[in-house]
């Protein structure tokens, strides 16, 4: 009976309910886009670190896990590699430079990463081969660089680096392509650590070392479950270092927490607006049909049926609106340029959809309570 009553009213006023479903659809589009944008911006900031084949990261002490400020010399790297309980450890150096695009005029900003081949930090490849020589003039690029610079395995890639007061250009052969490895909102390219020190931007073009100072050390443990104990062990064994897990490292990046908090606040306000809009609409609907509700109660219809019809009506309209919003979001995403960092993950989409489906019943609680308080005689003017 409740289903019949709710569907009957929706069908008799289908234009009104369809327009309101469109309002819910617009709210759904905003929520889903905010969720996708939050995930995309977070991924652009942490993608490389999140995919590291390591359990811990070692930084210079007092730098608050900042790869920009941290400086670790080669001796610390060797001492850490000799500690018990570590399966392997690899130094990683970060810098920024530019890739010259095929037209020879435009450039692409990239994260230039130095690693030791075969050690933690060195990326796996899906096309070509991994870094194997520390001295060869070769480079591994992520798929975004491969697409934008239009290079394949075996092609030459020109990088532009400011050394001293001059812009210098170096040609490196692409030996492998890895998946997305963005860091600090830029796609990443990987070379051996000595080559990284040779080609990275620096104040003195002649400054070069086969054992360069690096920014962090990626550590893979024999027992990943002992991260807390091993962090304390490394900090006690090596002077002036601080150790943390991967997640804490990228969440400590400058601007990461503020960015995510801003987007989460936007989502919260959007949900609040959704609750108020849905609540206001169904309250008006209930006030307009007080005589009909009074008639139903006068002929003996129990409160459970009246409440059930109202709840089902709210659920049907909300589900239809969220469905339309999901389709609209999918269509808009297909037309978005690749430069817009929107990523939809299963978890973020499920959380957003479930939250959207809940705001309907939550917003309609007032109208349900109003319907239950209707007195038959008063509603009929008797």
From TrEMBL:
<dbReference type="GO" id="GO:0005886">
    <property type="term" value="C:plasma membrane"/>
</dbReference>
<protein>
    <submittedName>
        <fullName>ABC transporter permease</fullName>
    </submittedName>
</protein>
<dbReference type="Pfam" id="PF02687">
    <property type="entry name" value="FtsX"/>
</dbReference>
<feature type="transmembrane region" description="Helical">
    <location>
        <begin position="268"/>
        <end position="284"/>
    </location>
</feature>
<dbReference type="Pfam" id="PF12704">
    <property type="entry name" value="MacB_PCD"/>
</dbReference>
<dbReference type="InterPro" id="IPR025857">
    <property type="entry name" value="MacB_PCD"/>
</dbReference>
<feature type="domain" description="ABC3 transporter permease C-terminal">
    <location>
        <begin position="268"/>
        <end position="376"/>
    </location>
</feature>
<keyword id="KW-0812">Transmembrane</keyword>
<keyword id="KW-0813">Transport</keyword>
<feature type="domain" description="MacB-like periplasmic core">
    <location>
        <begin position="21"/>
        <end position="236"/>
    </location>
</feature>
<keyword id="KW-1133">Transmembrane helix</keyword>
<dbReference type="InterPro" id="IPR051125">
    <property type="entry name" value="ABC-4/HrtB_transporter"/>
</dbReference>
<dbReference type="InterPro" id="IPR003838">
    <property type="entry name" value="ABC3_permease_C"/>
</dbReference>
<feature type="transmembrane region" description="Helical">
    <location>
        <begin position="305"/>
        <end position="330"/>
    </location>
</feature>
<feature type="transmembrane region" description="Helical">
    <location>
        <begin position="342"/>
        <end position="363"/>
    </location>
</feature>
<keyword id="KW-0472">Membrane</keyword>
<keyword id="KW-1003">Cell membrane</keyword>
